[in-house]
Structure formats: C-alpha cells, structure tokens
C-alpha cells in the first residue's frame, strides 16, 4: 500500500510555523509523508525575509524526514512591488499553492493554518480533503466559531459594548474588550476574520493544539454543536500539547540558572512580538527589585511607534539596557536576577529546576510551554487573542493570575511586585503551583500511547 502524503500550509509568521512544524514531526512519526509549503515574506520586508530564510534552513537541517518547499511568489508580485496587507498576500499565494499541489503525485490531505482559510477553495478544486490546524486553544476556537452567529444577532458592535460582560454558552464570561482588536474594529478586517470562521466550519476537520482535560468545557461545546448553530461542526481532534523541544546549546542564562535554588526564579518573557515602552520597562524593573524575588527577564527594544506590531513587521534591534532600565538597576540586582537581551531559550528555561513561575503574554505556544513545565502563569496579555487566553487561564484552568493594568497605559511597579511575591511566596501561589504540576502530568498522559491526544491523532490519520 502506498504511503499516505500530507501537505501542511502554515501561512505567515514564525508563531504559526513553529506549532505546525511540531505537527509535521508527529505526522512523520506515524509513517505519513509530510511536505510543508511555505510562504516567503514579501520582497518589501527584507528583515523578515532574511529571518524567514534562516528559520527555514534550521528547520530543514533539523528535520531531514520532512520536505520543505518555499512557494514561488505570485505572478503579480514583482520584487519592487509595494508591500501588500498580509491577508491580501496570502490570497495571491493560492495560485502558486494550486500549482504545487497539482505537481505532486498524490495528496491525501491539505492542513491549513486558520489565516489561510481561503485556500480551502484550492483543496476543493483539486478534490483534496482540507483540514485546519488551529494553533490557539479549544476555548478560543469555540468563541471564534461562535462569532458569526453572535454578530448576526447583535444590534450593536463589540467595540460599543466596551467592558460589558459577554456570556456565551461555550466560554466563561468575558469583557467584549477582551476580544482581539481586529474583531473590535468593526471594519473590513473584521469581516475578513468572521469569514475565516465560516470557512473553517466548511472543512473536513479541525486539529487543535490542546488536550481535552485542559479545556473540557470548550471541547464539549464544539462536539455538541453549540458553536455553529446552522450546520454540523467538523470533527475536532485535540492533538496537543505540541511544543518545541529544547535544544542542546548552553546559553549563558542556563548557566546562571544552574547556580540558583530550585523553584526560586520568575521567568519574564513576552513572545517574539512582545515589546514595551521605556516607561513600562522601568516599572517592571522597580517591581522586580522591590519584590526581592529572583528573576530572569528577557528585555526587547521598545517599539518604534505606539502601533501594535503586526505579522511581517521588522523586529526592533538589540536593546541598550543601560539606557532603558533605571540607573544602577543592573548593578543593584546582580545577585538577585539576570537580564538578557531580546531572546532566551524559553523551553529550556521553563523546564529548568530553578524556574518557579512564568510571566507571559499568554500567547498559546508560550502558555502550553508553561503548562508542560508545570509552572504557574503570571498573565500579561498584549495582542491578538491573548486577552481571551488570559480569561481561560485564570477563570477556567485556574493556572494563573492576571497583572492588573495590562489594559491601561502601564502596569505599575507595585502590581509587578505584589503579584511576583504572591505567586512565589503565598498560600494562594502555592495552590496554583500544585495545580500546575498536576496539569503537567495530565498533558504528558494525553500524549502517551492510549492517551486522549494520541488517540485523537490516530483517528485523524485513519480518516485520511
């Protein structure tokens, strides 16, 4: 019998490629051939294009059993063309994707990122079953699939609701302002996002990077058809948590952690696009110093403007720590903490015996990495679906606590100090630590043979 073949299409952004790559590794382990079709950033985004090439080269070198194919740019995209919106760019990439799929001898499934939802038409044209890999959790998926019907029955916009609680049967109550900004804007971008939700509902199935015990309420809602009232919900396969494995390079911060006591360090990292103003960085610094708790803090350069960073935007350069942080801070805290510039090996740090808590932007990849490390989460959402993830983490999963002021100009130093102390040295903090450790064990069990995620993935493959 011929080997089954699957093509994965992760769209744009390392944040979407990373979990899709973990899915590719899982598919290969089950004897299925995998090709990852990649979209190169536009020529106008030279820094992003250079970074993309380096990421692809590393991924290909580390995964020789996976085929990586960079799609050619669409015919309409000359090298000197002005930059298009990334959704427009993905739409134009349907033609190169179609040509590539036609060139393959057989494709048993096309697995799409949510932002590539329009490519479901390419799959239909070629008679290929289309699935979506949803890199966020089941709770956000349940809300996302509910939005078209919710909007159709609303007499106002989400933005006009402000902080009014929304009560949907698929999630705990949340403020309308916790929805992603693109949904609140009530413009053409909003319509495009809602259309994505409708297209996902047309697929052959949805693979979700989660495990059932973590989001049982949302999984039940999805399978009971509560999210899409006017048509059957596609099969939902909870196949996670799929997270990046740690590397074998020794970073200076890991050597520093080796010298610290067990469960004593708060790790602060806010994702590849998580940046703060100089004023906010100084508030964090003061709060950490006054807390007296050990810390490892990844600091990025402030954004060049107040605009929310978008997929494809160039990343800021190396930060000048002496200019950004309070005078004398690094010297005064040299025995208390360590500040690293721009990047740290997050999975290795989270899994280190000295790390005791994780202050995070609540991006889903980072959330799962924190859960797999068994750590309590200090929630500081910044953009995209992170505010809703914060609701699920704090209210539903009971794995974290929120930093007040995340939705204001700055989170005050006093709040940073108080929450760091609380999670590291209070009865309530210890309760979350114990719950986080238990949740880690459930995650491991889900992935093992006979576990819920393993069984769901086998079911998906058997349906190809």
Automatic annotation (TrEMBL):
- SUPFAM superfamilies the UniProt entry points to: UDP-Glycosyltransferase/glycogen phosphorylase (SSF53756)
Q: Does the keyword Transferase apply?
A: yes
Q: One Pfam match, by short name? A: UDPGT
The protein's GO terms of the molecular function aspect are: UDP-glucosyltransferase activity
| Enzyme Commission numbers on file | 2.4.1.-
Q: Which InterPro entries match?
A: UDP-glycosyltransf_plant, UDP_glucos_trans, UDP_glycos_trans_CS
Identify this protein by name: Glycosyltransferase
Species, as recorded: Urochloa decumbens
Lineage of producing organism: Eukaryota, Viridiplantae, Streptophyta, Embryophyta, Tracheophyta
């Amino acid at each position: 019998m011929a080997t089954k073949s699957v093509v994965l299409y992760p769209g744009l952004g390392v944040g979407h490629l990373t979990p899709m790559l973990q899915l590719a590794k899982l598919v290969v382990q089950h004897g299925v051939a995998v090709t990852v079709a990649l979209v190169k950033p536009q020529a106008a985004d030279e820094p992003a294009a250079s970074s993309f090439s380096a990421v692809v080269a590393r991924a290909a070198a580390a995964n020789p059993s996976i085929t990586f194919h960079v799609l050619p740019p669409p015919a309409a995209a000359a090298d000197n063309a002005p930059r298009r919106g990334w959704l427009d760019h993905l739409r134009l990439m349907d033609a190169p994707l179609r040509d590539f799929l036609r060139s393959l001898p057989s494709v048993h499934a096309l697995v799409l990122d949510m932002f590539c939802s329009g490519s479901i038409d390419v799959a239909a044209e070629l008679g290929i079953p289309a699935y979506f890999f949803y890199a966020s959790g089941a709770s956000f998926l349940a809300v996302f699939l509910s939005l078209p019907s919710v909007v159709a029955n609303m007499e106002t916009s989400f933005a006009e609701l402000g902080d009014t609680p929304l009560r949907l049967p698929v999630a705990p109550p949340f403020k309308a302002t916790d929805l992603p900004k693109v949904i609140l804007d009530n413009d053409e971008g909003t319509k495009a996002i809602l259309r994505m939700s409708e297209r996902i509902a047309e697929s052959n199935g949805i693979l979700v990077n989660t495990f059932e015990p973590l989001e049982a309420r949302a999984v039940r809602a999805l399978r009971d058809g509560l999210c899409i009232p006017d048509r059957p919900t596609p099969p939902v396969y909870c196949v996670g948590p799929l997270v990046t494995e740690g590397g074998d390079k020794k970073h200076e911060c890991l050597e520093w952690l080796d010298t610290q006591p067990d469960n004593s360090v708060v790790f602060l990292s806010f994702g590849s696009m998580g940046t703060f103003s100089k004023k906010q960085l100084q508030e964090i610094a003061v709060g950490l110093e006054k807390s007296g708790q050990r810390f490892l803090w990844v600091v990025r350069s402030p954004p060049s403007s107040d605009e929310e960073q978008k997929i494809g935007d160039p990343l800021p350069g190396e930060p000048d720590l002496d200019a950004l942080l309070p005078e004398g801070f690094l010297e005064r805290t040299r025995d208390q903490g360590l500040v690293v510039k721009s990047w740290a090996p997050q999975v290795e740090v989270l899994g280190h015996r000295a790390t005791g808590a994780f202050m995070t932007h609540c991006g889903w990849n980072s959330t799962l990495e924190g859960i797999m490390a068994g750590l309590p989460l200090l929630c500081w959402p910044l953009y995209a679906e992170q505010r809703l993830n914060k609701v699920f983490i704090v209210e539903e999963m009971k794995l974290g606590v929120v930093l007040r002021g995340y939705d204001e100009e700055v989170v005050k130093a006093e709040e940073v100090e108080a929450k760091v102390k609380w999670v590291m040295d209070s009865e309530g903090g210890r309760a979350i630590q114990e719950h986080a450790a238990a949740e880690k064990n459930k995650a491991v069990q889900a992935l093992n043979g006979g576990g819920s995620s393993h069984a769901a993935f086998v079911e998906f493959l058997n349906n190809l």
